[in-house]
Structure formats: structure tokens, C-alpha cells
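Good morning C.,

I know you're traveling, so I'll keep this short. The sequence:
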Amino acid sequence: MFPQEIQDLLAQLAKIPYENLSKAIQMGQHGKEEQAMHDPLFLLQENKAKGTGGTCFSLTWFICHVLKAKGYQVYPVMCDRQYGKNTHCCAVLEWNGAKYLLDPGYLAFTPILLSEQKEIRLDTPYNTIILNKTDDSQYRLNTLYLKDEKYRFTLKDKPVSSEEFLKHWQYSFLQESMTYPVVTMLKGDCHFYLQKENLFIRTRQGSEQIKVPKEKLSEVLYRHFGIAEEVTKQAREIFF
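The C-alpha cells, ready to paste straight into the viewer:
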């Protein structure tokens, strides 16, 4: 059993959307997520004020900052996806002689054991996360939704320095996924996922796709994710 403060932190992150709207706004204003980089707690301040969240970089930066301050051994790692190296990140926690993946960016709010010998599966409210060691200090993560298993990324269990992490964070602004809105969140047993102008609502029973007109985007993101409408209106000018 993990300490209650770790469970509480992950439960807190589960209530914060993964979204790139605030990142796009920061990119337009500063060319980087300046405040989040300098103050990890900015993530919570903005969530309380505007309902925003962050991408894998700000979420990982936040979780490492909080757990290190509490005395835990935790470090950020980079991950490779099909479309690029070091395009995803997460945290690794060392606890009771074992290592655990902390990955709020992929909506995993329970630590996942990095096993040397066996496949590890974590059932979330709507899908299953599958983790296998593939090579020296590397792990392959797939997700299984209904009968569809997909490769997501390869985790490289090698701590990165703050300087290297910030370099990859800065480069993330150039990714193609920063050219359109992406928002995702778990609510009860439902997964809400918006990409471009499509909202997907997924449960273990099936998936529904809803077309979201641009003029309705602010209303939809506030209703389903709690993001303030003025944030979406500002980001919409950047994306569209």
C-alpha cells in the first residue's frame, strides 16, 4: 500500500484535465510555458482559477516537484512515440525497493510497477494499460480498449536532468499536436477525449463520437472539462 499522501496527490491530478489550450496560449505569449516551468504549483493555481490543467510535461514537472519536497525518490524520464523521440514524459517513483511509473499524462492515477520479469496490467475505469520490459531499462506501454490494443510509447528508465527535461519541454511546442486542441479527462467510469472538432465519450461498453462546431467549443469544454470559456476563446484564435 502506498502512503496516503501519494494516493491523495494522484487523486488530485485525476480531477485536472490534460489539455493543451493553456500551453498554446503561453506559447503565443512567451514562446514557452514560462510560469509553469518556474513554479510547478502554478498548475494548481490556474486549475482553481480557470479550470485548466496541463500536458505531460507540466504534469510530470508538478508531480516530481511535490513528491521530492515530501522526501520521496522520484525522477522524470523521457519516452519515445512512433512519431518522435522524447515526445512524452512521465515520472518514476522508487518505493520499498521497487520502481513505479507515475503517468498522469496517460490518465494513469495508480502507480504501475516496472517489473523486470512479467507483464503488468492496470485496469482503469475505461481501458487497460499494459506494460512490458523490452530491453535494458526500456518498457513498452500499450493500451487495450475493448478489443483494440495500441502501442503508445517506449519508456526509457534513465533519469534526466532538469536542464534536459526543460529542453525537451521547449521542443514540445513544435510538435504537430500543438496545432489543434486536445483535451482529455476521466469522469467516473467515462473517458472524455476531445481532438480538433470531435468529442469522444468512452466507457467499457462502447464509444460515442460527437461533432463539436467551433462556435460551440467553449461551451462544450466548460460543460465536460470545467475549462473557463474565456480560455477556450483565446486558444481558439490560436488554433483556428
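Safe travels,
E.
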